[in-house]
Amino acid sequence: MTRGLIALGILIVVGLIKLPVERNLATLHRQEHFRGVEFKLDLREKLGQLGFIAALSGFRAIVADALFIQAHAAWENTQWGRMLWLFRQITTLQPRVLLFWDTAAWHMAWNASVAAMNNSNQPRQALRVKAQREYFAIGKDFLERGIKNNPDRPELYEALARLYKEKYKDHERAAEYYAKASALPEAASWDRRFSAYELSYCEGREREAYERLRSLYDEGEKERLPTLIKRLKFLEDKLAIPQDQRIPDTLTKH
Amino acid sequence: MTKGETASALQSFNVSTIPKRHRVFSLSRILAITSNTLTELTRLKVFYVLLVFGLLLIGSSIFMAQFSFQQEFQILKDVSLGAISMFTSLLAIVATARMVPRDIEDRTVYTILAKPVPRFEYVVGKIAGVLLLLAISTLVMVAAFLAVLYMREQAVLQVTAKQMASAPPDQLADALGAVRASAFNVDLVPGIIIIFLKACLLTALTLFVSTFATSTIFTIVVMVFIYFIGHLEATAREYWLTAHGSGLVTRVFLAIVALLFPDLQAFNLVDDIVAGTAISMAVFIKTALLGIFYTVIYTLLAVFVFYGKEL
To answer: Which residue of A94, B152, B184, B252 shows the fewest CB atoms closer than 10 Å?
Structure first.
């Protein structure tokens, strides 16, 4: 009994010693983006009792993967509502996995939106278009939240730029997000180029687009790709660039 | 017999009959207990059942081929590392919980302690045996995981090379590089070491609980509760130290959780490593030291309580 009490006393003293160490480590983890999930009670509502317990016991990756496989099955059965519900849980559990945000956005903005547009059960086109726009918005929301959780990774900025370009036909926002991606350390070399391409479609920003494309062109052969040359030629004509400042025609590749 | 022969005979008689001096600490005694514990544990069916389940779970990841290679590798790594973590933790608890109660039940402990074996050597030998078993199981599971990952990587590389045979060499190299980058990542190694250290911590804590527990089942139930509470400790700690509006009872409860339980959430680094977060040396060393600190403290406490146990 006495030994038990002494052991308890030692545990409390050890607890007081370890407390600042653990807090310091938790801060360090947070700084380095570990501990992606903050365990609050509202997480239980999102995940359900079983998922919450599994996430608490350190198996959130496995739970997220199991839900991802379920989402894949739901996709095969075109159960879009279920997919959305599953992807919300998956991204809550694993907010640092870009793949989940990207896949969720792709399913919503590309697959579900097309299915909504082709929905033969809905005779009114206005409602089909409305449903389609709603799925675009859901896809955009996934990517925006993904970026909020992973501001240091370029992939989701690129995905959002693609969504603006292909679904909203908003070249200005597409250019903005490609530019944001290109400013990050692990960005792909084509991000800068794509940002300039998108800008070249924006009314009123042709001069800026021309300067950026020209500066890429001047970097050397590696950047002188067919699309870049084509857009540069287009802008030269549109901006009436003097002949002597234009790029040579011989370099044009198609 | 000459005088010299008699003296020599007497001397040899004296040397052989004088009892060897008992040493307070003997590594060979600890090693004997360790090897005996390891042998005992490897004879347990539960060890093989857990190991086979772990290997099956890792092996089942092969059948993820219908996903894209990024999705496939993500799931493979998550499932495999989750299985390693789950089964090392389970093994740590189950193998340790039954050790001391069974020795008491079988009266083995009396046989050992009747010899000049100090109780701390008995406890240290026992825990070393379990840690050795955990190390072996972890290595076996990691080897299976790496083999599966390598096999899938090679298969995906072959398919990619075939699909992009007509592509320019730099594009092919980029694609193959992307496949390789999605497969094995050096950061997985410190993540696996942290999983092992978490299992060591759980072993020491289970041993501590089993020194005052009355049965194996009681120890396992208590450890399951500790396991869940340990993963909530960080939340309780932050709430206790930062929230000021809660009542006294809540604050006392949170303080007890924060002070008495280890922060097991701190040892869950693999999820984020698989997600692509690089582990820094500072995080790795601090987490590893925390794991070693807990293991040592709980082992010492187990020794302390075991000394007072009436046998």
So the answer is: B252
Question: Quick one: closest CA in B to A188, which residue?
Answer: B174
What are A85-112's pLDDT values in tens digits?
A: 999 989 988 888 899 999 999 999 999 9
Q: How many domains does chain B have?
A: 1
Looking at chain A from residue 161 to 220, which residues have their Cβ under 8 Å from any Cβ of chain B? none
**What would the pLDDT profile of A168-188 be if each residue is shown by its tens digit?**
999 999 999 999 999 998 888
Interface of B with A in 62-91 (CB under 8 A): 66-67, 70-71, 74-75, 78-79, 81-82, 85-86
Confidence of residue A41 (pLDDT cuts 50, 70, 90): low
- CA-wise closest residue to B302 among A12, A5, A7: A7
Q: Tell whether A23 lies on the interface with B, counting CB pairs under 8 A.
A: yes
B240 assigned to some structural domain: yes
Consecutive H or E run containing B218: helix B216-242
Q: Is position B18 within any domain?
A: no
- Mapping DSSP onto H, E and C, the string for B144-212 reads HHHHHHHHHHHHHHHHHHHHCCCCCHHHHHHHHHHHHHHCCCCCHHHHHHHHHHHHHHHHHHHHHHHHH
Partner-chain residue, chosen from B78, B235, B266, that has the shortest CB–CB distance to A65: B78
Residue-wise pLDDT for B217-267, tens only, equals: 999 999 999 998 898 888 888 888 876 667 888 888 888 888 899 999 889
**Percentage, residues of chain B above pLDDT 70:** 89
Task: State the residue range of the domain holding B115.
Answer: 25-307
Amino acid type, A186: E
Residue B216 falls inside a structural domain:
yes
Per residue in A189-205, is it b (16+ CB within 10 Å) or e — as a string? eebbbbbbbbbbbbeeb
Within 10 angstroms of residue B151's Cβ, the number of other Cβ atoms is 11
Domain for residue B79, yes or no? Answer: yes
Write the residue in A38, A57, A96 that is nearest to B227 by C-beta: A57
